[in-house]
Amino acid sequence: MTLYLTHRYHFSAGHRLHNEALSAEENRRLYGKCNNPNGHGHNYQLEVTLAGPIDPATGMVCDLALLDRVVDEAVLTPFDHRNLNLDEEAFRRRVPTTEHLCIEIFNRLAGKLEVETPAGVRLARVRLEETSLNFFEYHGEEKNIQGRVRD
Amino acid sequence: MIYLTRRAEFSASHFYHNPDWSPEQNRRVFGKCNNPYGHGHNYTLEVTVVGDVDPLTGMVVDLKQLKEILEREVLDLFDHRFLNKEVPAFATRNPTTENIAVEIWKLLEPKINFGKLYRVRLYETSDLFVDYYGE
Questions:
Q1: Strand B81-82 relative to strand B2-14: parallel, antiparallel, unpaired?
Q2: Which of A40, A81, A114, A141 is catalytic?
Q3: B103 counts as catalytic
Q4: ipTM field
Q5: Is some CB atom of chain A closer than 8 A to the CB atom of B127?
Q6: CATH of A3-14+40-138, one of 3.40.1190.20, 3.40.1080.10, 3.30.479.10, 3.30.365.10
Q7: What confidence score (pLDDT) does residue A151 get?
């Protein structure tokens, strides 16, 4: 029996979409307003989903306080009220699109959660809203939310 | 195949406690949720049914029928109740969001004879929810 437990978090960060490999015109054409050299910011809404069995002693998949601590250490503390391009090594050479940010958050959380959560519990999904009008999901490389390799 | 979701709301109280543990361990693990007098939530339930569109009606599911099943099987049992004390399934199991979602699946699955129950999603708050796909 697998339950999917989702907790929602938020953080605010600045970024600029700009690819050094492209010309100034190409960057402006591709990224539009997001290419503004001074940057801009978003209120990101983050959903983290764990999948696993119910622990019969607690009735829970995972202690929420544990999940909150891991998310706080791995994501909220480094990203909240920061400039993603300038403050984060990961985005010095990678454009901090929400796609890249979503994958980066998944990878940061997956390793830590693997160690800290009870056996049989895994990170199933990271869903990241950049604004209320667009959002991105990542389930791990070539995986669906059930953890099966995509057809 | 079309996935159709119907939403319902109920309000209930609960608390978490493991009788095999000491009061200290219960307080440490469950925190504020261990208060034996209970506390409450406004739960939002989303029930998703999957099926083919009936060419005669253009629908997967008769929504009125689904609404009545949700009211009869879930809301009548859970709404404005103290889950630990009033729902037999939670006499010995903690009424966590996980366990409530599984219980709702068990109540609904045999009653849905149009399409197939695909997912039960239960929100305890707008920031915390559980999905169960029956497996």
A1: parallel
A2: A81
A3: no
A4: 0.89
A5: yes
A6: 3.30.479.10
A7: 61
